[in-house]
Amino acid sequence: MDHSANAPGLLEGSNIGSQKERVVTEEEWLQKWEVGNIGFHKEQGHPLLQKYLDVLLNGKSGLRIFFPLCGKAVEMKWLADMGHNVVGVEVSEQALKDFFSEHSLPYCEEPVPEISGGKMFQSTSGNISLYCCSIYDLSSSIVGKFDGVWDRGALVAVNPCDRQRYASLMINLMEKNSSYLLVTVSYDPNKHKGPPFYVPESEIKSLFGSCCEIQCLEKVDDFSEKHKQWGLDYFLEVLYMLKFVA
Ligand code: SAH
Question: Which of 9, 74, 105, 166 has the smallest number of CB atoms closer than 10 Å to its CB?
């Protein structure tokens, strides 16, 4: 039997199949957190951030780093411990409270006047500010602009019909010359409905190409038992560096 057609990367195309119409509601995300269906969370943090930290930070200190759709990502703690200012956004209050309690970080909670029902959880030390609201409620007048972004499990979790809106917002939140590390996933979208959703390289170019230089830094084979159970026969993580030039 010829396995070459299944080799990682060879099936990559720009067709996202029926995923185009798929919508996961905020309530469904909250439900996932409630029942602990959070297989996307990485206890140990992400090896690609560890590996490419210098590319993101470029030797600078005291940067403002944004974590869209942050969940309880432990990488927020890493960057805060290095002296950077971390801002995240997440619809699940439980995720944010878990983040602080799992790292034994004291925090305070305050309303965000510009956002109806919005709250901000801030570490007492002041360098981690996590907004509990939909990312689409944010704007640079509320959260300011950022020097760096770690986007893992974020663009790939956004409903495909909202990608343009998400990218426009991210572009608005970025300082000139800022760096955006983006992790996407690649698999056969006809075999799994997502999330995470398959985001082809052609789409990254059409979403961000007008204001960013885009470089693919690495493709990593991340295929595991979980992906096998989803019915897949390959699964890659693809890391891009977006440099905001305009
Ligand atoms: N980036 C995190 C979480 C990935 S899962 C990590 O790497 O672990 C995607 C997360 O986005 C979920 O926690 C979900 O609750 C949250 N989310 C989904 N839609 C959102 C929205 N519109 N605004 C803010 N958060 C959202």
Answer: 9
Is residue 239 scored above 60 in pLDDT? yes
Q: Look up tokens 């951030």; give the residue.
A: 49
Report residue 173 as tokens: 């939140």
In a domain, 24, yes or no: no
CATH number for the domain spanning 119: value is 3.40.50.150
Q: Could you give the number of structural domains in the chain?
A: 1
Mean pLDDT of 102-119: 98
pLDDT at 224 over 50: yes
Please give the annotated binding residues for S-adenosyl-L-methionine, written as ranges: 29-40, 69, 90, 134-135, 152
Q: 0.85 exceeded by the pTM? A: yes
Query: Does any domain span residue 51?
Result: yes
Asked if the structure places residue 124 within a domain, the reply is yes
Question: Ligand 1 in contact with 236 (CB < 6 A)?
Answer: no
